[in-house]
Amino acid sequence: MDAVVYIGHGSRIMEGNNQFIAFIEEVKKEINISVQEIAFLELASPSIDETMEKIIMAGAREILVVPVLLFAAAHFKRDIPEELLAVKERFPEVSFYVSKPFDLHPKMIDLVLKRIEEKRLKNDGAILLVGRGSSDPEPIGKLKEISKHVQQKLDCPVYPAFLTAGQPGFIDELEKLQLEYNKIYVVPYLLFTGRLLKRMESKIENSEKEVILCHPLKYDCFMKEVLVEKMEEQLMSLVKECLA
């Protein structure tokens, strides 16, 4: 493998982009490939096209593409493949190998538990696990599965909600839970500090009941371990193909 390109979502808030860059710098230490670069899907630079052109012009022909995404939704299924196809049309001699998103890895559930335990000192209240949401039903179902796993682990009520698309919506679900519970722990199932998190903070500040906002996932060490594992799985599958 000649190079690795890590693809982040990108944010208008620079803090979120810096969090991604710092995370990838730690991941790079675990990967024995000399050329490792980053790219963003939107809202930040460099773009996928810019990064790919840079490393291809420097000689890369086999490239491991690492989407740093929570689930396989539209960005993974449509946007990244379209970007890579456009690059492939310009540089047909180049091969791309794409690793999978974090998905339902057990360490992602452990990370949710960690974020809850940072704020929840005793077994009280309800937990609201909030994802970005999607028009694709797959990530909606996956977040609901994570909620069930967390509920089983903690033996307390855990409710899923979504910020942009998917039901139930965050605001409606938070208002409903405030009628039932005096204390609610809100866990943002988001990768970084961004506009969605700021919107959540604003809503929570105006809550009548005690609503405690936990930290977002924030590219934790658990996530580094999962990402490296996903990369190694993709590389191993290529070795098996060569030996077959």
Give the topology, please.
Blueprint: E1 3-8, H1 14-28, E2 35-40, H2 48-57, E3 62-67, H3 74-90, E4 95-98, H4 106-119, E5 126-133, H5 137-154, E6 158-165, H6 170-178, E7 183-189, H7 195-205, E8 210-213, H8 221-243
Parallel strand pairs: 1-2, 1-3, 3-4, 5-6, 5-7, 7-8
Helix pairs in contact: 1-8, 2-3, 4-5, 4-8
Protein name: Sirohydrochlorin chelatase
Keywords: Lyase, Metal-binding
GO molecular function, one term: metal ion binding
Task: Outline the structure in words.
It is a single chain. The protein is of the alpha/beta class and 244 residues long. Helix content is 48%, strand content 20%. The chain is built from 8 helices and 8 strands, in the order βαβαβαβαβαβαβαβα. The strands form 2 sheets. Strands 2-1-3-4 form a 4-stranded parallel beta sheet, sandwiched between helices. Strands 6-5-7-8 form a 4-stranded parallel beta sheet, sandwiched between helices. α2 packs parallel to α3 (74-90), α4 (106-119) crosses α5 and α4 packs antiparallel against α8 (221-243). The chain is elongated, with a radius of gyration of 19 Å. The two termini are 18 Å apart. The relative contact order is 0.15.
Structural descriptors:
Rossmann fold, 244 residues, 4-stranded parallel beta sheet, lyase activity, alpha/beta
Order of helices and strands: EHEHEHEHEHEHEHEH
Shape: elongated
Taking strands numbered 1, 2, ... along the chain, how are they ordered across the largest sheet? 2-1-3-4
Roughly what percent helix? 40-55%
Low-confidence stretches: none
Strand content: 15-25%
CATH class of the largest domain: Alpha Beta
Pfam families: CbiX
Protein name: Sirohydrochlorin chelatase
Organism: Niallia alba
GO molecular function: lyase activity; metal ion binding
